[in-house]
Amino acid sequence: MIIKEFVEKIKRKEIDIVEHTHKTIDESKKINKEYNYFNTISDTQALMLAEKLKQNSQGKLCGVPIAIKDSIVVKDVESTAGSRILKGYMPLFNATSVQNAVDEGAIIIGKTSQDEFGFGAFSTNAGLGFKVPKNPFDKKRATGGSSGGSAGIAQKLSFVLSYGESTGGSIVNPACFCGVYGLCPTYGRVSRYGLIDYGNSLDKVGPMSRNIQDIAFGLEIMSGYDKKDSTSLNSPVDDYSSYINKGAKGLKIGVIKEAFGKGVQKDVEDGVWDGVKRLEDEGAKYEEVSLPLALKYGVSVYYILATSEASTNLAKYCGMRYGKEDKLTGNFNEYFTKVRSENFGNEAKRRIILGTFARMAGYRDAYYLKAASVRTKIIEEYKKAFKKFDVLVSPTVPYIAPTFDEIKKLTPLQNYMADIMTVGPNLAGLPHMNVPIGMASKLPLGMLVIGDHLQEGKIIQAGAVFNEK
Fold first, then answer.
1. Among 124, 196, 170, 232, which residue's Cα sits nearest to residue 423?
2. Are residues 150 and 208 in contact, defined by beta-carbon separation less than 8 angstroms?
3. What is the per-residue pLDDT for 469?
4. CA torsion angle for 67, 127, 309, 263 (degrees, to 10)?
């Protein structure tokens, strides 16, 4: 059942909102004990809202349960971005993307688990004291990151829409590993107001679901101009749902040549090519296209720019106005060091150090400014490709979901290379979506579909070919 059908049944009183919310909360708690998809389940707030909505069943999302990534704030619900340094933070307001859904009658059921501040590709960099989410198909494997809890619950719970957030691939990566659709919109399409920042020039909020209908409908409600966010785009929101039944006929598809070969598992490569052929069977035309800069330099550029922005954003969590506090002993530097050392995890510390180094006098020109220049070249490369193609495709991740034991053996650089396919569109601010295209070894395969700026409709049009009816 898709959201629109569910809401119609709610309004016809065929489904009791309170009863359904109780059932969803109970199911979420049961799943959470086994899979760790939530940092917080907001049962009290959810049931209070359900009682209120029962009296006045209004809104496009009336009674729809929604799970929100922990880095997107929800009023009166602990929001920590998966970090101990923010434990106990109870926001006084909703993020705009959340408020848009609440205004349409959505019920927030909880805050989902993630890598601390979004720092990871597997959701294994959970903050101190937080649990790591497990893959819904195999508990010995990762969900992907950093929106791992949102992807996992979207797959496992019988009916839910999840909110994820992406900086370098954090929506599509876990969507791939968990076998769901995950759409990262054009930068600025969805307001960032109320998002606990990782990298301001890269962060984006987007929907995750098992079906494309709810992705399109959810995006329509999340999107729009917001005067509270200076990066918000003041352009009309498309009717994304109208693209679902258009079919692939006439679509021009560019298959990214550099995204195949060395480092890509054969099952993944074969699966994506099968997906391309299926689009061709539906009337699309494809040819290979070369994007040498995005694939060769994307990871390097991304991790210089993203860590630079992250180190700046996290500087405020020093135990004074923001973040965990402690007893003031010694001088301020000693106090700040103590608070940050005790409350940030290892990966957060690593990225703070990397970003601070890249911005230091004497290194800023060599690293930060050069990376910013190459980012511009990558954007130009994509724009050139979109003069010829409607969408570009590649694998979402080079391999199927790894086991936790395999992840432990990876170096930090090998961890970062998990994002090789996804950092390019994130650097360019382009909309992109993971499309579930089948299974290999009983684990999901994903194809990345990338569109030009504000062309979310076209990637939904292509992705809908694979939607389970």
1. 170
2. yes
3. 56
4. -80
Catalogue all structural domains in the chain, each as residue range(s) with its CATH number: 1-287+389-469 (3.90.1300.10)
Catalytic residue among 42, 146, 308, 394: 146
- Which candidate in 28, 42, 69, 83 is catalytic? 69
Could you confirm whether 97 is annotated as catalytic? no
- Max CA pair span of the chain: 70
- Cα 412–Cα 143–Cα 40 angle in degrees, nearest 5: 105
From 28, 123, 147, 170, active-site residue:
170
Q: Look up 316 and say whether it is catalytic.
A: no
Instruction: Give the model's confidence band at 158: pLDDT under 50 very low, under 70 low, under 90 confident, else very high.
Output: confident
CB 238 within 8 A of CB 457: yes
CB 135 within 8 A of CB 358: no
Do you know the residue count of the chain? Answer: 469
pTM, two decimals, is 0.97
Is 330's pLDDT higher than 90? Answer: no
Please confirm, yes or no, whether 69 is among the known catalytic residues: yes
Residues 78-92 have a mean pLDDT of 97
